[in-house]
Amino acid sequence: MVLLAEDTFLSAMQQEAGMTQDELKQAVAKAALDYIAPRLERNSVIGVGTGSTANYFIDYLAGIRNDFDGAVASSDATAERLKKHGIPVYDLNAVADLEFYVDGADETNDRLELIKGGGGALTREKIVAAVAKTFICIADDSKKVDILGDFPLPVEVIPMARSHVGRQIVQLGGDPVYREGVTTDNGNIIIDIHNMDLSRPIVVEERLNQIVGVVTNGLFARRPADLLLLGTKDGVRSIPRNPST
Ligand SMILES: O=C(CO)[C@H](O)[C@H](O)COP(=O)(O)O
Q1: Are 131 and 73 within 8 A, CB to CB?
Q2: What does the entry list as the binding residues for substrate (predicted)?
Q3: CATH class for the domain made up of 8-146+222-240
């Protein structure tokens, strides 16, 4: 595990007010690159997430592609983008060591517990995050919340279990909404849970995963991020997880 600095503001590149959300995403992607670049070895393989913030990170990564070996992708879309930049993409099973995983999020709380899966890639994201030694979450400050759950919680489900899982979610107090027309990279469907009490994220994460037919859900509470790079109008805040909270 890399030693993480105290909460600090990084870089002066975005200190003017009025930055767009996209510019904040770009700023945190650059901050992630600046964080990992000096820590990479020539044989390093990097875990790479999915979504618009992760895409900016991939584009920055291309600038240092001769300084590391390659990447593991959390989705087919990410693999495609990495390859377009000439970055070798490895199967996770072929990789012995993954120092860093860099990915966005739909929501984060103070404990760096996350909701992910807005882009439907939650299962592969969770697998890569589980393997990586350090999970760096990159997000603009619209994603920072006190209590998770305004963003509907995605659940990846085996298609034939859709109705069963929906009924179980209702029993747990959530409102399941089938994400129409979406098939995950694993050939499954997504159910988004609205109005669920997520004040105890670890408990909910485990309870949902016990439902037969659920592949996994988008709560990253058992494996939160280790470092949050949060884009704000005052700069990128570097917030390491505090394991004692
Ligand atoms: O979990 C994800 C994809 O499954 C993304 O990280 C999440 O949806 C954030 O996306 P974006 O960076 O586009 O705001």
Answers
A1: no
A2: 50-53, 103-106, 116-119, 143
A3: alpha beta
Where does the chain hold its CATH 3.30.70.260 domain(s)?
A: 153-219
ipTM: 0.98
Residue pLDDT, tens place only, 183-220: 999 999 999 999 999 999 999 999 999 999 999 999 99
Fold of 153-219: Alpha-Beta Plaits (3.30.70)
Q: Is 105 annotated as a binding residue?
A: yes
Question: Annotated catalytic, 125?
Answer: yes
Q: Give 136-187 pLDDT, tens digit per residue.
A: 999 999 999 999 999 999 999 999 999 999 999 999 999 999 999 999 999 9
Atom of ligand 1 nearest to the CA of 143: 14
| Structure-token match 């990410």, residue found | 78
Distance between Cα 55 and ligand 1 center (Å): 10
Q: Which atom of ligand 1 is nearest to the CA of 121?
A: 4
Q: Residues with beta carbon inside 6 Å of ligand 1?
A: 49-53, 103-106, 116-122, 125
For residue 30, the CA-to-ligand 1 centroid distance in Å is 17
Q: In what order do the strands lie in the sheet with 214-217?
A: 175-178, 189-194, 153-157, 214-217
Domain(s) labelled CATH 3.40.50.1360 in the chain stretch across: 8-146+222-240
Measured from the Cα of 218, ligand 1's closest atom is 1
